[in-house]
Structure formats: C-alpha cells, structure tokens
Amino acid sequence: MFRLDPKQAVMEHVSVGKAAGEPISKLSAAAEAIIASPVERTVSGAVIAGIAQIVEAVLLSLLGYAIYRGYIGGGEDTFYVPVILATALLANIAFHVADTHRIASYRLLIGQISRVLAAWAIVVVVLTVGIFIFKASDQVSRVWLVTWFAAGALLLSVYRVALRALVLRWTRMGRLKRRTVIVGGGKDAGDLIDQIHAGASNDINLLGLFDDRVDERSPETVAGCPKLGRVADLVEFARRTPVDLVIVSMPLSAEKRLLEMLRTLWVLPVDIRLSAHMSRLKFTDRAYSYLGDVPVFDMADRPISDWNLVFKWVFDKIVAIIALVSLSPVMVVTAIAIKCESKGPVLFRQNRHGFNNEIIRVYKFRSMYTDRTDAAASTLVTKDDPRVTRVGRFIRKSSIDELPQLFNVLKGDLSIVGPRPHAMEAKADNALYYEAVEGYFARHRVKPGITGWAQVNGWRGETDTIDKIMQRVNHDLYYIEHWSILFDLYILLMTPVSLISKNENAY
Q: What is the pLDDT of residue 115?
C-alpha cells in the first residue's frame, strides 16, 4: 500500500531561506459561495460506533441483572454478575465479528437486525455449552437464561431500530458526511465522482475539485461538480472552511505530481486518500480502505482524530482544572506583584496562530511596562531587555507568565500539550518564522499547547537564529507524528524539570 512517509516529508520540507507563507491564491466564485455557506457540525463515525457498542453492552448487562433480581431475588451476585458481564463482553465481540458496529451497517434494517440476532443466539449457545462443560447447571436458572435470551433479542431489535433512525436522521442533516474535495479533473475525476455518487453518497459531502490544468482537459464543471481552483488554492480554502477529506484522482505512476501535491497539502489537518479507480494493478483487500464502496489508498491521516481527540479533550480539561485549583495561590501572588510594581492591567492579551492557522487570543501575565508592550512581538525579548519589569523577568524565566493560558485551555483555544502558539510577527534572524522555515504551518495541524516537546528539550525563549526556530519546528512535527496520551503525560511531567534545567534561552 502506497503511503506518505511523514518523517521523510518533514525532512524534505524544513529548510532555510525560502518563503513558506500561505500561497497567494484566488478562489473561484463557487469556492467563495461554499465558504460563505453555514456548516453543519460533523460527528465522528468511529466515536458514534464506540458509544453505540458501550450503550448496547450496558443495556444487555442491566437487562440480565434485572431479570436475575426479579426472578431469583438476589443472593447469588458473586456467580450471576460475572456471568452477565462476561456474556455482554462476548456479545460485544460477536457483534464486531458480525460487522454490525459500522455506520454503514447502522443504516440497514433487516440485514443489521438479522446479523445481531444471529450473533446473540450464538453467544447464548456458547454460554449454555460453557455452563454444561463446567458443570454449573445447578447454579443457573433455566428460566433466567431463556428469559434473558428472548428479552435480549427484543431489546437488541428495538435498540437497533432506534439507532438506525438516529443515524439516518444525522445522515440527512449531513452530520455524518465528511466534507470532501477532489484533486484532479477531466474524465478520470468524472469517473470517480460517479463512483462516489453510486456508492459513497451517504458518507461524503462532495464540495468540488481542484486542478492545476486550465485547458479543455479540465472543464469548469465535472460530472456536476464545480472546479473551485488550483491545487495551491486548496490550502486557503481549507483554512477558511472545514475540509475533512481530500481524494486525489491521479494514477500511481504520476509519482512526481503526487509528491508535489503532498508537499503542498501536508500542512493541512485533513485525511488524504488516493483513489484506486485509475490503477490497473490489483491489490489484496487489505491494501485498500473504503469510502462507502469506493476503494482508496491511505496517503496521509489527520493527526489526533476520532477517539484520540476525545481522550485529548478530556485530558486537557482535567489537567487545566486541577492546575488552576492548585496553582491559584501562585497566580494571585503574581497578579498582586505585577500590580504593585507597575501601572497597567495584570493580563496581557495577544493574537496568535491556533489550530489550522485560525487566529486565537491568548492570555499571559503582563511582564513588560505598559507603555513598552509589543502586542505583535515584532521585536523579540532579549537578555536584560529594558522593556521587561523585574517581576516580569522572574515570571518569564519560570514560565509563570503562561499560567493564565489555562483559561484558554478551558475555552478550547489551546491544549495543555502541543506546539507553542507563536506571535503573529515573531522573527528569527529578522525573518518571519514562516519565511524562515518552509513547512512551518504544518505545526498547526493540531491545537497549540501551553507546553510542548520543543520546550521540554530546551527550545524555548529567544529565537535569534534560524537554527533555533528550525529546532522548534522539527520538535513540534516530531510530536505531531508520534502523539499519544502517554507522550502528553510524559511532556507534562518533564515540564517542571525543564524549567529548572533548560532555561538558558528564557528571558
């Protein structure tokens, strides 16, 4: 299976002395119309399926326990409760084997329910055989077992009908459709669009296509799908309106064009798939993933998505609340010290780049004299900078000035761990960061954080040379490609250590 190597992409894309800002582009009127249209919030299919199976297992367990309590009256919990929980777990596995926990399966009626009931019957048969083998028939009520089987079948049928109605409703609303664009044009793209309409229309909201060709091979409309601009325009388009998926309609043999396209689009937080409809090579089923019935090759994945996004959200909120409660005395003392030393507000607000280059407003404790603050950070703070107050030097050195950003985490602008959000006009060696490092905006594929992998490795504070900002970006990209909750926890635990051992660049 062809797949983009993120490590190779990072190494090829980080270099000095080339302008790397957002491409200058002019989107079509059709693209501007899509951007101006209201967007329905989409729901992750993987998260829905996960919640659906948890609810299903809980309902089966509660049903089994309720029948046990109602008929037997209790007294044998140490036997029945483990049996009920083990059966619910086995049923969950059986439903997975029967392929019933997918969005596509939820949309079916007869097919879905028949597979679920067949799997439930097999589970009860396995339970019965297990009871016989372990000679536990004297401990199990036959009435309880038969009643649980019958009532469970009814419960599963009703649950799946309700789940189907909910999924169909969300499908009609567009909440389960991934906002998708096609890269490529002409007849090949037309064939792909026809396949999407035939087998993936419930999963894909096709917005339009982007193609660099401007001759008759690339008309303004392909199979009813409008051309929205050139490939470089897709970066601006995806910054201004949500895009979940990019499908590339190019042959595998067009290696040079594919690599050029990937170098342009890899800075975006989107899934990139290569359509297999143009390939004459036939691979095993495991080589493909599917969008509805359309086979594709995975080229690049959006970092931190589906359940990982949920886990990170929970991690952020829990850590932020705990930190605010435990560090509130430090924050109160800092606020008093700032107010006593110099006139002006305690907090300093600054615009910075957030997730997918959106502009966010971050909070900091004010560390400079009010009349010398530099909201755009056009001039970096240096050692013994006269603009910085005495309190400011201490809180900058110890990173206490960053603590108000915990409120940004609760608002959802920041994560606890992630690439640090840089000021809009921050420079390295008199060059704006995105001009100094090509591929700089790839660090915005995830939400920025209060601390990060670059910071715990000593790359914080002044960036007076190109090498320093390159090191930051390299560490940020490494973090994105290797993210896990355990990695976040490790960085969080190492942050206090690095504040003491690696603070020589913090002024």
A: 97
As a whole number of angstroms, the distance between CA 192 and CA 280 comes to 15
Q: What tokens were used for 100?
A: 């019933």
- Secondary structure class of 27 (helix, strand, coil): coil
3-class secondary-structure state, position 435: helix
pTM for the complete prediction? 0.84
Which residue in 500, 506, 448 sits closest to 479, CA to CA? Answer: 448
Q: Are 364 and 405 in contact (CB under 8 A)?
A: yes
Q: How far apart, in Å, are the Cα atoms of 375 and each of 352, 390, 426?
A: 10, 19, 10
CA distances from 475 to 10, 143, 455, 479, 481 (A): 10, 62, 9, 6, 10
Instruction: Give the whole-angstrom CA distance, residue 86 versus residue 287.
Output: 34
Q: What kind and span of H or E run contains 166?
A: helix 142-173
Helix (H) or strand (E) holding 257: helix 255-265
| Span 389-439, pLDDT tens digits | 999 999 988 889 999 999 999 999 999 999 999 888 777 777 888 888 878
pLDDT of residue 489: 96
Write down the pLDDT at residue 219.
83
Mean pLDDT throughout 21-36?
A: 76
- CA Rg, the chain, in Å? 28
